Amino acid sequence: MSAEASKWGTLAVACTAMLVLSVDLTALHLAIPLLTRELAPSAAEILWIADGYGFALAGLLITMGWVGDRIGRRRLLLAGAAAFAVASVLTAYAHTTEALIAGRVLLGIAGATIMPSALALVRNAFTDSAERTTAVGVFAGVGGLGVGLGPLLGGALLDHFWWGAVFLVNVPLMALVVGAGLVVLRESRDPRPGGLDPLSVLMSVTGLVGVVYSVKEAATGGLSLVPMATGLGAVAVLVLFVRRQARIADPLIDVRLFRIPAFSGSIGVNLFAMFALVAQSLVFAQFWQLVLGWSPWEAGLAGLPGALGAMAGGAALAPPLISAVGRAKTIAAGLLLSACVFAAFTGFGADLEYWALLPFLVLNGLGMGITMAVTSDTILASVPKERAGAASAVSETATELGGALGMALLGSVVNAVYRSGIDTPEGLSDTASALAEDSLPGAYEAASTLPADVAERVLEAGRLAYVDAMHAALLCSAFLSVVAAVAALYSLRSVPKELESVGT
C-alpha cells in the first residue's frame, strides 16, 4: 500500500473508532426512560449509568497513552477495539442496574485504549502542517458527529428493539476497525521507551476517579463528610502525582509539556468546553421524550442537525478561520457562539416548535466543532512527535473529565432545580409523591399507578419543573462557555496561526 493511501486509510480507521466511542457516549441517553421502567434505577443511579463510561475513560487515558507510546499505538488500538466489542455484548445483556453500570465501566476501560492511540496515529500519519490541521479537524468533527448520531442511532434501535441493542451495534463496527486496521495502519511508538512506574499509574487513576466521585456525590447528596474527605484526598494524590512525574526518569506524563502555552491553554479550553457541552445530550434526550412526548427515533433525529454542524465546523470552517484571525480568536469565537445559543435555548419550553429551534442547534454544533478541532490540532502540533500518544491522552483526559464532570454537576443541577420546583397535587400517597419529586422519569412511574386525571396533573407538574431545571443547566453551560472563551483569548494569544509540528 502506498504511503498516500495508508495515510488516508489511517484517518478513516481512526475516525471509525472515534465515531463508535462518541456514539456510545450518548446512545444510551434515549434509553433512560426504558431503563427506568425495566431496571428501576434511582436518579443517582441514572447519572452513574450515564457517567460510568466517561469516568473510566478519564481515569485510564493517561496510562493508556503511555502504554501506546511504548508498545505501539497500532497494537493498542486493535486490542482495544476487540475488547470494546466484547464489552458491548456483556453490557447489552445486563439485567440489573449494577451489572449495567459495571458494563459501562468496562466499555470505558476498553475505550481508554483506543482514544489516544487513534489521535496519535493520525498525527503521525500527517506530517504536513496544512494536511494535519485538516485531518485533525475531520477527526474532531467526526467525534462531534458521533455525539449527535448517538441519540439518532439509539432512537432508531429503541423503536424496534430492547435497550441493549444500542450496544450491540458496536460489534460490527469495531470488527471493521480491527480488519481494516490490520491492513492500513502503520505502527508508531516512542523510539526511546522507558519503564512503567506502577505507583504513578495507581496515583493517576486514584486521583482522577476520586475527584470525579467526590464532586458527583457532593453535587447529588450535599457536602457531607465522605465526599469532602474523598475529594481532598484525591486532590492531594494528584498533587503528589505531578511532583513525582517531575522527579522520576520515566514519567507517565512529561509535566514539562504544560510549560508550552499552546498545549496547556488548549487543554484547559477543552475541559471547560466539554463541561458545557456533554450534559446537554442527557438533558435534551429526556426533554424530547418525556416533556414533548416524542419517540426515541424522533428524539434522536432532533439532535442530528447539531451533529452535522459540528462536523462542518471542525472539518470545513476551522482551517480557514485559523488563517484569517488566528487560533485564539477562532476558539473564542466558537465558544462565544455556543454561549449565545445556550442562552437562547432558555427561550424554548414545553410549547416548542422544533423548526424555530433548528437554526440554534446548527449554530451550536458549528461553534463547538470549530473549538474542538482547533484545540486538538494545537495540542498535537505543539509537542514532540514521539510524545503524541501521551499528549493525546492528556487531551482526551481533559475532554472526558470535563464531560463527566459536566454530566455529574449539570445533571445534578437539573435534579436539584426539579426537586425544588415541582408542585405535586395534594392527596398523593407518600410513595407516589416521593417518586414524582425525585425525577421526571419517577413522575411517569408514579403516574402509571394513578387515575387518569390525577396522573395528568402529576405529569404536567413534572414537565414544568423539568423545563425550569433544563433552563438552569443551559445557563450554566452558557457561563462556562464564556469563561472558556476568555481563557482562550488570554492563554493562546501568542500561539501563531501556522503551528508546525514539533519533531517532524
UniProtKB/TrEMBL annotation:
Domain of life of the source: Bacteria
Keywords, sorted A to Z: Cell membrane, Membrane, Transmembrane, Transmembrane helix, Transport
InterPro entries, per database record: MFS, MFS_dom, MFS_trans_sf
PROSITE patterns assigned to the protein according to its UniProt record, in alphabetical order: MFS
Subcellular location: Cell membrane
Membrane topology per record: Multi-pass membrane protein
Pfam family, one: MFS_1
PANTHER family in alphabetical order: MAJOR FACILITATOR SUPERFAMILY MULTIDRUG TRANSPORTER MFSC, METHYL VIOLOGEN RESISTANCE PROTEIN SMVA
Residues annotated as domain Major facilitator superfamily (MFS) profile: 10-496
SUPFAM superfamilies: MFS general substrate transporter (SSF103473)
Membrane spanning stretches: 12-34, 46-67, 76-95, 101-122, 134-154, 160-184, 196-215, 221-242, 263-287, 299-318, 330-348, 354-375, 472-492
Protein name: MFS transporter
